[in-house]
C-alpha cells in the first residue's frame, strides 16, 4: 500500500520530486534501522546467537567449567543418548500428560465465560477474581499449595477427612498423585487467562445470529452448540496452541513445588534440562535437549498453521 | 422481564459462590499469615483467627534473619528498569516496523517474530556462558537486559501503530518533522493505552520472574524477591504462618497494581492475546 502511494506522488511531481524522493527514502532507510537497532541488537545477541550456539554445543560433550580447551565434537552422541535416557523419557511423558490441562482449563473457562457473559451482574468482579492466580508469582503459588496439599494436616485433606474419606491421597508426597496435583494447580492458574480470552471472543459474536435463532425457535442449548461454539473456534484454537506450547515451558512451578520429585514423577523436559545443565554441568547434553524442545514447539506451531486453515470456521 | 432478572440474580449468586471457592486458597493464605503457628493447620479451618499473631509474623518476614527489604528493593529496581527500557526499545522498534519504509523491513520483522517461538530454556546454557564472558553474570544490569529485549512488546505495540493513519505521519513530514519528532510528539501519545497495557504486563512478568534470577544471580545481596521468598521458605522450614506471611508480602503489591490497572491488564491480554 505504502509503496504505491510513494510511486504515485513521485510520478505526479515529476523529476525534481524523484530526487527528493530518493533523499527521502535514503533518510527513511537510516531512520528505520536506527529505530529498530536497540531491539534488534538485543534480540540478536541474547536470542539468535545463543540458539545457534546451542545447536553447535549440542554436538559436543562440552561443559562450561572446563573452558574452551575441553570442547570436543561428539557427533550425534547427545541425541542418541536422549533416545536411551529414561529420565528424559519420563520427563517427556509427563509433559505429554500435562497437555491434558489445556482442554480441561478451556472447557471450564468456556462454561464460566458463557455464564458470566450472559447471565450475571458484576462482570468485572468475576474477571478480577479469576484473573488473580494468573498475575501471582509461581513461587508464592507453589509455597501456598505445598501447605494446602500437606498430606497429614493440610486443609485439603482435613476437608476430605471431614466428609468421610478415611485415607485421602498424599498428593505431592505420592508419586502416583504428584503430577495430578501439579496439573490441578495449572488449571487453577490458567483458568482466568482462558476465560478472559473467551469473553473477548464472545463479545465479537453478532447478536443478530442469536436473534435470528430465537425467531426460529432454537433452544439456548442448541444455540450454544450451533452458534457459540463454531463462532468461537478461532479462539479455542488459539487457546489450545498457546496452552500446549505454554505447558511445555512450566519451570518455576515445578522447581519450587516439587523439584521434579518424588522419584521423578513430576519432572518435565525444562526441569530435567535445568538439572542436566546447572547441576550435572553437562552443557552439550542439555543443549541437545533444548534443541529437541525447540523442535517440539515448532511442530506444534506448524500444526497451528496447517490446522487453522482446516478446522477453524470463520 | 422480571423473571429474567430473577434468573440473573440466581446465576450471579451461584457464580459468586463458585468465585469465592476459586479464590479460597488466597483467603486461606491471608488468614494463615495472621495466625500463631499452632492454629494454622487446625481443622475445621478458622477463617477469622481466634488468636491474632499478625504483627509478629510480618515482623519476622520483614525484619527477621532474611533481608526481605533488600530483596524488595532489588526487585523494585530491576522491575522498574526493565519495564522502562523494554517500553522504550519496543516502542521504537514497533514504530520502525510500522511507520517507516526501509529495505528488508518485512524480512527482519519475520525473523524477529520467529524468535518468539524459541523457548527460553533452550538458550539458557549459551546465555549463561555468554553472560560470564561478557561480565554480565551476577549483575542486575544483566537481568534488566534479558527482560528488556521486548519482542512481545514490539509485536503488541506494532498492532497499535498500524492503526494510526499514514496521513497523520505524512502531513507531519511535510511540515519537515523528522521521524524522532513524529514518534515522540504524535505516535507515542496516540498509543498511550497500549503503552499502559504493555507496561503493566511487563511489570508483572518481571516482578514474578523466578527462572532468570535463579540462573543469572549468585550473590545473596543481589537476590530478587522471588529468590528471597524461596530462601525464606527454606529458612522457616515448617513454620507455615511465616511462609504464608512471606507469600502474601510477595503477592500483595502486584495485586494492588492489578486492581488499579485491571481494565488495562485484562483488555490488554485479550487484545494482544499475549501470554508471558
TrEMBL record, chain A:
Membrane spanning residue stretches: 30-53, 96-116, 128-148, 177-200, 229-248, 254-274, 286-306
Pfam families: BPD_transp_1
Principal subcellular localisation of the protein: membrane
Keyword Protease in annotation: no
Record flagged with keyword Protein biosynthesis: no
Localization: Cell membrane
Keywords assigned by UniProt, alphabetized: Cell membrane, Membrane, Sugar transport, Transmembrane, Transmembrane helix, Transport
ABC transmembrane type-1 domain boundaries: 91-304
Protein's membrane topology: Multi-pass membrane protein
Family: Belongs to the binding-protein-dependent transport system permease family.
UniProt name for this protein: Multiple sugar transport system permease protein
TrEMBL record, chain B:
Membrane topology category: Multi-pass membrane protein
Source species, domain of life: Bacteria
Transport listed as a keyword: yes
This protein's UniProt keywords: Cell membrane, Membrane, Sugar transport, Transmembrane, Transmembrane helix, Transport
Transmembrane segments: 9-30, 78-95, 107-129, 141-161, 182-205, 239-261
The ABC transmembrane type-1 domain, residue ranges: 72-261
Subcellular location: Cell membrane
Annotated CDD domains: TM_PBP2
Family indicated by similarity: Belongs to the binding-protein-dependent transport system permease family.
Protein name, as recorded: Multiple sugar transport system permease protein
Species the sequence originates in: Paenibacillus silagei
Lineage: Bacteria, Bacillati, Bacillota, Bacilli, Bacillales
Amino acid at each position: 500500500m505504502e509503496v504505491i502511494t510513494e510511486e504515485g506522488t513521485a510520478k505526479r511531481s515529476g523529476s525534481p520530486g524523484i530526487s527528493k524522493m530518493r533523499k527521502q527514502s535514503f533518510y527513511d532507510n537510516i531512520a528505520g534501522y536506527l529505530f529498530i537497532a536497540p531491539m534488534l541488537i538485543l534480540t540478536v545477541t541474547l536470542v539468535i546467537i545463543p540458539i545457534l550456539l546451542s545447536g553447535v554445543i549440542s554436538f559436543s560433550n562440552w561443559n562450561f567449567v572446563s573452558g574452551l580447551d575441553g570442547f570436543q565434537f561428539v557427533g550425534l552422541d547427545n541425541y542418541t543418548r536422549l533416545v536411551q535416557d529414561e529420565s528424559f523419557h519420563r520427563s517427556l511423558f509427563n509433559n505429554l500428560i500435562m497437555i491434558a490441562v489445556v482442554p480441561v482449563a478451556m472447557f471450564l473457562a468456556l462454561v464460566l465465560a458463557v455464564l458470566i457473559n450472559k447471565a450475571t451482574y458484576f462482570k468485572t468482579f468475576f474477571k478480577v477474581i479469576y484473573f488473580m492466580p494468573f498475575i501471582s508469582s509461581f513461587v508464592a503459588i507453589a509455597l501456598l499449595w505445598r501447605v494446602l496439599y500437606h498430606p497429614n494436616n493440610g486443609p485439603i485433606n482435613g476437608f476430605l477427612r471431614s466428609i468421610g474419606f478415611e485415607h485421602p491421597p498424599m498428593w505431592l508426597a505420592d508419586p502416583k498423585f504428584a503430577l495430578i496435583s501439579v496439573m490441578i494447580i495449572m488449571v487453577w492458574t490458567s483458568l482466568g487467562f482462558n476465560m478472559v480470552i473467551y469473553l473477548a471472543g464472545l463479545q465479537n459474536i453478532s447478536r443478530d445470529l442469536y436473534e435470528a435463532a430465537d425467531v426460529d425457535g432454537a433452544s439456548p442449548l442448541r444455540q450454544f452448540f450451533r452458534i457459540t461454539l463454531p463462532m468461537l473456534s478461532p479462539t479455542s484454537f488459539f487457546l489450545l496452541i498457546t496452552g500446549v506450547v505454554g505447558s511445555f515451558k512450566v519451570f518455576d512451578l515445578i522447581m519450587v513445588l516439587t523439584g521434579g520429585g518424588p522419584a521423578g514423577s513430576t519432572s518435565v523436559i525444562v526441569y530435567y534440562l535445568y538439572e542436566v545443565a546447572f547441576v550435572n554441568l553437562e552443557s552439550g547434553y542439555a543443549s541437545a535437549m533444548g534443541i529437541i524442545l525447540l523442535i517440539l514447539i515448532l511442530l506444534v506451531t506448524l500444526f497451528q498453521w496447517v490446522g487453522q486453515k482446516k478446522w477453524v470456521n470463520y | 422481564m422480571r423473571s429474567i432478572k430473577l434468573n440473573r440474580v440466581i446465576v450471579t449468586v451461584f457464580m459468586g459462590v463458585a468465585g469465592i471457592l476459586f479464590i479460597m486458597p488466597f483467603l486461606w493464605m491471608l488468614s494463615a499469615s495472621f495466625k500463631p503457628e499452632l492454629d494454622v493447620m487446625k481443622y475445621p479451618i478458622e477463617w477469622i483467627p481466634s488468636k491474632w499473631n499478625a504483627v509478629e509474623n510480618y515482623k519476622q518476614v520483614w525484619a527477621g534473619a532474611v533481608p526481605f527489604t533488600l530483596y524488595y528493593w532489588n526487585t523494585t529496581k530491576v522491575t522498574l528498569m526493565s519495564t522502562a527500557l523494554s517500553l522504550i526499545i519496543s516502542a521504537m522498534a514497533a514504530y520502525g516496523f510500522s511507520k517507516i519504509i526501509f529495505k528488508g523491513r518485512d524480512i527482519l520483522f519475520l525473523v524477529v517474530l520467529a524468535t518468539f517461538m524459541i523457548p527460553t530454556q533452550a538458550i539458557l546454557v549459551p546465555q549463561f556462558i555468554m553472560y560470564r564472558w561478557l561480565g554480565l553474570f551476577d549483575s542486575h544490569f544483566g537481568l534488566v537486559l534479558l527482560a528488556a529485549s521486548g519482542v512481545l512488546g514490539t509485536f503488541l505495540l506494532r498492532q497499535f501503530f498500524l492503526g494510526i493513519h499514514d496521513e497523520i505521519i505524512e502531513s507531519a513530514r511535510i511540515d519537515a518533522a523528522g521521524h524522532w519528532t513524529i514518534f515522540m510528539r504524535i505516535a507515542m501519545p496516540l498509543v498511550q493505552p497500549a503503552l499502559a497495557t504493555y507496561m503493566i504486563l511487563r511489570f508483572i512478568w518481571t516482578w514474578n520472574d523466578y527462572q532468570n534470577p535463579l540462573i543469572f544471580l549468585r550473590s545473596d545481596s543481589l537476590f530478587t524477591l522471588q529468590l528471597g521468598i524461596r530462601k525464606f521458605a527454606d529458612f522457616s522450614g515448617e513454620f507455615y504462618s511465616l511462609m504464608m506471611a512471606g507469600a502474601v508480602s510477595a503477592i500483595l503489591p502486584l495485586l494492588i497494581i492489578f486492581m488499579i490497572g485491571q481494565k488495562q491488564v485484562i483488555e490488554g491480554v485479550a487484545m494482544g492475546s499475549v501470554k508471558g
